[in-house]
Design a protein that fits this description.
Layout: E1 20-24, H1 36-45, E2 49-56, E3 62-64, H2 71-74, H3 85-88, H4 108-114, E4 120-125, H5 133-145, E5 152-156, H6 159-168, E6 173-178, E7 191-194, H7 196-201, H8 205-211, E8 215-216, H9 227-232, E9 237-240, H10 243-249
Parallel strand pairs: 1-2, 1-9, 2-4, 4-5, 5-6, 6-7, 7-8
Antiparallel strand pairs: 2-3
Length: 255
Amino acid sequence: MHPPRLPPVPPVFADRPRPLVMAHRGCRARAPENTLAAFRLAVAEGADLIETDLHLTADGAFVCLHDPTLERTGGVAVAAADVTLEELKSHSVSCGMPGFAGERVPSLGELLELLPPDVGLALELKTDRFLEPGVGKALGALLRRSSALDRTAVLSFSFARCRAVKREVPEIRSGYITMKGDLPPEGEAEMVGPAWPVLLANPLYPWLAHRRGLFVAPLDETPDRLLGYYRAIGCDAVLTNDPAATLRRLGRSPR
């Protein structure tokens, strides 16, 4: 039995111009990815949604981190799954950007504390730990406590992870990220994220997705060169490393 189908767009976005602007790992263009600095900057610039990646630490904390380890962002081969949150936070994740040596891997709770009530959240599930019922329940409980559940979606290349979370948290929206252009199982998702070449090859893809009631956001972290095309074919949101620049290109004034 499938969870109840939710409207693809949370009410908070109902009257906003399309496409919505989703900050990829925060404002990655001017701050280290997936840090509080990047998230604050994306909010300040006017992003409609924040996209981040989720891993779990050894003590079960949800952390905003793309890779399994800090090797690329912090220069140390420390895996989030092998250490506690406190141990993880002993390392800088400046991504080599000057002025950001104090940045640490934030917990999801820290991101939720700074998220305004009119900004949405897209969580890419990066580990099979999300197949565990207890992990889904814990994620749902955290989002409920923060009053963010109704404007949050879970996303993954592995739709099984989203399905497992949704079994425990029926009120959460879910989405499938695809490099091939296939659609998620009918009736089980609200969003789809096709890689941008899929949309160039098939401009009817958003129309087909909309027929299934799906919200469409291309997987393209530098979308500005194709913004007119994405808007013309009916994309609902665009992912971007630079929210302010993308907002200006769309004719919307950054905050």
